[in-house]
Amino acid sequence: MLSHPFMVRAFEAGSVIAVACGLIGYFVVLRAQVFAGDALSHVAFTAALAALAAGLDLRLGLFAGCALFGAAIAVIGPRGRADDVVIGNAFAWILGLGALSLTLYTTSSSNGVAGVNVLFGSIFGLSRSQAGLATAIGAGVVVAAVVIAPPLLFASVDGSVAAAAGIPVRLLGVIFLALVGVTAGEATQAVGSLLLLGLLAGPAGAAHKLTDRPWLGLLLSAGQAVLSLWAGLILSYNSPRLPPSFSILAVSTGLYVLSHIRPIRVPKAHRNSVAFTRK
Questions:
Q1: Are the beta carbons of 158 and 109 closer than 8 angstroms?
Q2: How many Cβ atoms from other residues are within 10 Å of residue 258's Cβ?
Q3: Half-sphere exposure of 35 toward its Cβ, with a 13 Å CA cutoff?
Q4: pLDDT band for position 274 (50/70/90)?
Q5: Are 34 and 201 within 8 A, CB to CB?
Q6: What values do phi and psi take at 219, rounded to 5?
Q7: Quick one: pLDDT band at residue 145, thresholds 50, 70, 90?
Q8: Mean pLDDT of 8-27
C-alpha cells in the first residue's frame, strides 16, 4: 500500500490534519461551539467555490474565508464566543452565497470535479505541493493549539474568573475560532466540507466521554482522530468502492458510539482548572 506515492501523501498530510482536528475539536466540544464548526463547513464550500469562480487557487478561498469568518463571528459574539443567533443568520447568508458561487463556477467552467472534491474531499488526489502545504499549515495549527491550551481551558471552564485573573478571554476566543476556521479548511481537503464536522466533533466527543483530564483528553482526541484517518484510508484502499471520506467518518462515528457503550471516566478535573493553567 505504501509503495504508492498518493497513499504516502495521504497518510502524511492526513495524519497532521487529524491531529489538528483532534486538538481543536476538543475545545470546540468543551466550549459548546459545535454549531460554529457546522457553519464553518459551509463557509469552506462557499469560499472555495468563490475562489474558483474568481480564477483563484481553491486553497486561498478555503483558508482565508474560514479563518476570517471564524474570527468575525467571535468578534461579534460575547467574550469571543460565537452567538447562535449570529451564526444562524450568517449561516443562511453563507448558504445563499454558496448557491451563487456554485452557479457562477459551473456556468463559467466545464470542470465539475473541483466542486465535488470540495464537498466530499480528495485526500487520495493531493499533489506533492498540496500535501506539503497541508502538512505545514496543520503543524502550525497544532503548535498554536498547544500554546494556547492552558489559558483557553481556563477561559472555557469559567470565563468570568479567567477574565478577573487577567486572561484576555475575548482575544483568546477570536484566536480560537480563527484556528477552527483554518482547521476546517484543512479538513475539507481530507473529508470534504459536508463531512468535516465529523472529524472535528467525533473524536473530541469520544474523548470527553472517556476522561475529564484536559491533557489526557486532548491526547485521546488527537489519537482517535489519527486512528480514524488511518483506518479509513486502509479500508478505502482495500475496498475501492468505499470513498475515503466515508470510511474515515465511519470509523470516527464508531469510536464515538463505543465511548457511550462503555465509558471509562476518571474523577472530574474541571475543579482544578486554575491549577492546571498555572502549571
A1: no
A2: 13
A3: 14
A4: very low
A5: yes
A6: -65, -45
A7: very high
A8: 91
pTM of the model as a whole: 0.81
- Could you tell me if 70 and 214 are in contact, meaning their C-beta atoms sit under 8 angstroms apart? no
Do 265 and 218 meet the contact criterion of CB atoms below 8 Å apart? no
| pLDDT tens, residue by residue, 196-233 | 788 888 899 999 988 888 899 999 999 999 999 999 99
Residues 43, 181: contact at Cβ < 8 Å?
yes
Cα–Cα distance, 67 to 89 (Å, whole number)? 18
Lookup: cell for 263: 465509558
- Provide the grid cell at 209: 466521554
Q: How far is residue 58 from each of residues 62, 71, 115, 130, 180, measured CA to CA in Å?
A: 6, 20, 10, 11, 18
Q: Grid coordinates representing 229? A: 484517518
C-alpha distances in angstroms, 156 versus 34, 171, 200? 14, 13, 17
What are the Cα distances from residue 255, in Å, to 54, 174, 199, 247?
40, 30, 11, 13
Give all domains of the chain, ordered by start, each with its CATH number: 5-278 (1.10.3470.10)
